[in-house]
Each structure stands twice: as structure tokens, then as C-alpha cells.
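User: Here's a chain of 456 residues. Predict its fold as C-alpha cells.
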Amino acid sequence: MRVLFIKPNMGLDHGRPYRDRACMEPLTFAVLAGFTPERHEICLCDDRFEPVPYAGAWDLVGSTVEIYSARRAYEIADRFRALGVKVILGGPHVTLIPGEAAGHADAVALGDIDGVWRTILDDAEAGRLKPSYEGLPPEGGEIRPISLRRDIFKGKTYLPVALTQFSRGCAYSCEYCSTGSIYRARFPHRSPKEVACELAANGRKLVFFVDDNIVADSDGAKVLFRELIPLKIRWIGQASLKFAADPELMDLMVRSGCAGLVVGFESRDPANLAAMNKQFNLAGGDYDEVVERIRDSGIMLWAAFLLGYDHETEASIRETVDWALSKKFAFAAFNILTPYPGTPFYERMKAEGRLLYDGRWWLHDDYRFGFAAFRPRLISPERLAELGFQARLRHNSVFQILRRATDLKTNAKDFWSLLTYFAYNPLFRRELPRKFAMTLGYRGQEPGSFETGKGT
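Assistant: Prediction complete.
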């Protein structure tokens, strides 16, 4: 069979397809390609920067669906199905609300489907594709061996970063988090030695771990970091603040080459942290103390904040930005709280009658990226979106970028860190006005010249 993988774009930027200038390899498809028998021909189309090859003679199209790309994914799927091509949709959004995706696909794949991918291909080849497939949880908490096929990325314009994964899921169940709703406090992981061998064979010296929380299993993470030390790589990942309370874990992270971490601080208000079931953020101590401990280690931080919980006010948002600027974080994200379907937060907002855009905001004609999709308790939805945008603009002003660059413990501790800092901060600054209020999906506005590609 000829199988086409598609990574959908988000939507339109002033009537033209949005072009993300910082695209990373969609690791999911390298994993699935590794489980694909050689008799099948595989191609990858990244809708974020290349035309969708509708004219190709495809037997099966598979697409991963996230909430912000759902509308676009459905548009692409509907068009292929109209051409008589079988379509299978998977990913976190499909796993959380499979009934919606089923209306746009011949089959939906729920959960981690690497274990059932060959069955899906066999069924499609035999003409007996089932309406639904569900990936089984790994036995014993360990993910089956994976052999990535990175050749599917050849010739595509991705950032020069090797993506990999050690673990899936998270140990926590934050109210707003879709990962917690999917994995339900489970966090299976790969063999640390397998990951290290993969990275050694790959040869790249900059690695991004896509794990939602690479320290979810701290003991397993310590084994991984010990395996990474001889590789002399630099790596970036996502972690909960728990690592800062474990001196041995932090030491191993640094020795293994940890250059930076995305960390969800979310809020400085204990009442908001309690509401989101994230009191564990304070287990390592006061935020000021914890940040200094991390800065002393030299790890660059991408601090993520969640704006709009029930105790949020205009004053608290301004104070959050002030505090973030005082810490000279390498990067910071000021995200509007989002009701993801299937999460406890979504159900709470629905029960309280606070959802906007008829509940399915990700498909609504009036919704725009960066807007509030629920009614906050102490701020209007419009004002929350405006304050979030202003926070991002302020943190990424030219003056603040230059001022934060002077942190000799992290952002300017060596040439590589300073180069990385100045490579990405101006990029994020340019992207801010392009993404805010962006239309999700193409909504029948697909430019003909953009969609006429015949292959990848």
C-alpha cells in the first residue's frame, strides 16, 4: 500500500496558510514508520510548510489530531475521503472525543497505537478496516522497543534538533491537563539504554525530549541521565518543578547535558494552584527560592504561566509578568487557560455554564487563536485575551530581550546558551502578532496553487 502521513497546520494568517518558522520533526510518524512493514510505501506531508498531495494514488491517509489543528485535520480528511481514499485519525484530541473525529474518518485510533499499527495496516490492506482501534497500555510500565525511521524527514525544513521520547504521561492529574485525562496518572517509559543507543546512533548533539514530564518517574529518569552522560549531548525537555527538590536528580540532569527545561509554574497564587490540583509545585519551596536553585545549576528555563483561573485578576496578571521579568527567564509563555474536552476543567466549566462558542470552540467560526473559550470569574473573556497578548508582547519587547540576556548564570553562561537565546527570542517576538487571533482551519479558503502538490 501507499501510505501518507499528514501533520496538519493550524489555520490562516491573514488569509494565507500560517507558516511556523520553528517547526520540529513530528516524532509520532517516525515511530509509526518504524513499525511499518517494508512492503508498504510511506510518505510524510507536513501541512505546516508544504502542499497536501491530494492527487497522489494513496491507499491510506493517517493524521494526528491536536485540538488547535482539529478543524484543519478534518478538512483534509474530508477531502481525501471524497476522493475515495481511506482515512484514519488519531492523536490526543481523537482519544479524548473519538465520536467527533469518527464523522471525518473511516477509522479512529485511540491512545498509543504503536502496538496496533501493524494490525491497522493489515486490516486496511485486506479491506476490513474497523471503525476504531485502541492502543493497549504497555505491560509492566515499559514501552515496547521502538526503532525510529527518521528518513521520512529527509529533505524537509525542520529545526536541527533530534526529537526523542523516554516516557509518556505524567504522575499528576491537573484539572486542566489533557495528558492527565488520557494517561490517568500512568507514565510508562522506554528502556534508558535503548534511548541512549538511539541517540548515539543518531549523532546529533542537540536533543529535545518530547515527554510531557521527563521526571515523572524520578528513579527511572536518574537511570536515563546516567546513560546520557557519556554521550556529551545537550538536551532540552519538559519537567515538573519536583526536580528542584531532589539534589541528586538535578545534578544528574546537569551532568547529562540538560541545557534547558520547559517548566509549568502556572500561577504564583496558592489558591489557583489548589484549584488546578497543582499544589505539588510548592513542594520544593517558595518559587523565588526554587528559581534561584535552578539558576545556580545553569539550566535555562522556559517558564509557562496559565492565565485565567478563578482567583486571577488584572493586577495578578501584571504581577506575574513583573515577577517573570525579574527572574530573567530565557523564555516565558503566558497562556490563556483553555478548556480541553475530556478534562475535569472542561466538565466543570460546562456544568457551571461558563463555556463559550457553544462548547466546541475549536470548531467554531468565531473563535480565534489566543481568545478565551470560557467565562473567567473575575475578568471578562475579552479582557483576559487582551491581557495575555499584552503579557507576551511585554516579555518579548526588544528592551526586555536585551535585559534578560545579561543573566550570566543561565542565558549568557556560555557562547552556546547566548547564541540559542538570541536565535529564538527574536523569532518568538516576530511570531506573536501573527498567531494571535489567527483563524483555525482553512474554511474553504485553500489557495489552489498551495494545494496542488502531487507528492513529497
